[in-house]
């Protein structure tokens, strides 16, 4: 289903790698990629050029919260793909002809097309596979090719990934950065390759989505940024698949409790909130058990869901200094009201909805929670290291095998949760991205199917390209 960090991976088939003179050598074993919010009109001016256009997709399919990173190839062209913490494999070449919304088609066409026959280093395999989604899916054929990381001298040899034979309701390819070889799949995925070929020292990456008002954040493969959080990183063991709610090796950890602190400052503890949660920044919504979601919604003045399954709330909560408090071992992530309230542009104006939805199948913390967290996803040590997100600049560090991530302190002061920040910039009329929703690809064919409709993609543009000989092509 769509429980995934869907980010945009830039894949570019360039001229021979040795001719790429703009590439610089890396001094550290990490790769930093900026992320930008979809409503940033300076970066995505072409998306908003038609101010009359409103995407013709239902509310449940709106990717109103989306993050991107602009990247350039050698030929000065922007290229895109999708990054997903909820899946495990890379595939490219969506079928744009199957999409319905005008804006969806616009995004899909911007992604570009990969032709294995244009690369002298590409080897087409005979193996095929079907990846299923909450909505849509992809039939892929595997290829092996060289993959370079934009802006560095890193060149990954012999990377296996899928080329779509056909897709349904998918407007871009996907880069899964969950567990890979001998855990969920039989070959090395990108996280495996980055570590095995020395681009990173460990199978770890850090993620700071940034707040809605900032409209930007950062992901670092093999590194972290101590100027993106306050306090000390707290280690949360990843729950083994055998003990996980869905039986799949994903980023499951234990949550100790959940509470709410309204503007009055009188914190209210919700009962029976110790549970396993799946951290998936590819999901726009946070999924909680129905009894809990209903209780939280009531505290936001919502008595029931609408026909699409969302809790309508008053937009005034964007201007109030309350927080939802997600407690884990050693750390509580406080999520301001403004980060958990979603603004949706419709033909009738701005409507607001709680970024939480009821689910009786599992608990998932999506971007409406994770925007307020700094997270290091650490496959090497089977842990996720958490701290409160706070932005006070940039101070990048390589993650080494010897590093005790649970002792790393942030450079920032804790945010002032007593003051409301109303700078959440909703989509202006007619300026929605229209990026369609889909479910998270489930390489293990486990049971996410059917839930993708309400849980949209979170997208980050990242910079990676496939290299070979011959004419260039772009994603």
Features:
475 residues; mainly beta; Cathepsin D, subunit A, domain 1; 8-stranded mixed β-sheet; 7-stranded antiparallel β-sheet; disordered N terminus; disordered C terminus
Give a summary of the structure in a few sentences.
The chain is mainly β and 475 residues long.
Shape summary: globular
Using the CA coordinates, give the radius of gyration.
Answer: 21 Å
Report mean pLDDT, rounded to a whole number. 76
CATH architectural group of the largest domain: Beta Barrel
Classified by CATH, the class of the largest domain is Mainly Beta
Task: Report how far apart the termini are.
Answer: 24 Å
Low-confidence parts lasting 5 or more residues at pLDDT below 50?
Answer: 1-25, 51-79, 422-464, 467-475
Find the CATH topology of the largest domain. Answer: Cathepsin D, subunit A, domain 1
Structural class: mainly beta
Biggest sheet, open or closed, and with what strands and sense? 8 strands, mixed
Please state roughly what percent of the residues sit in beta strands, choosing from under 5%, 5-15%, 15-25%, 25-35%, 35-45% or over 45%. 25-35%
Protein name: Peptidase A1 domain-containing protein
Region (Disordered): 420-439
Organism: Xylaria flabelliformis
Domain Peptidase A1: 67-387
Provide an overview of this structure.
GO terms for molecular function: aspartic-type endopeptidase activity. Belongs to the peptidase A1 family. One of its GO terms (biological process) is proteolysis. The structure is a single chain. The two termini are 24 Å apart. A hairpin with a 2-residue loop joins strand 22 and strand 23. This protein is mostly beta strands and 475 residues long. The strands form eight sheets. Strands 1, 5, 6, 7, 8, 9, 10 and 29 form an eight-stranded mixed β-sheet that branches. Strands 4-3-12-11-26-27-14 form a seven-stranded antiparallel β-sheet, with no helix packed on it. It contains five helices and 30 strands. The N terminus and C terminus are likely disordered. The protein folds into two domains: 242 residues, Acid Proteases (Cathepsin D, subunit A, domain 1, Beta Barrel); 182 residues, Beta Barrel (Cathepsin D, subunit A, domain 1).
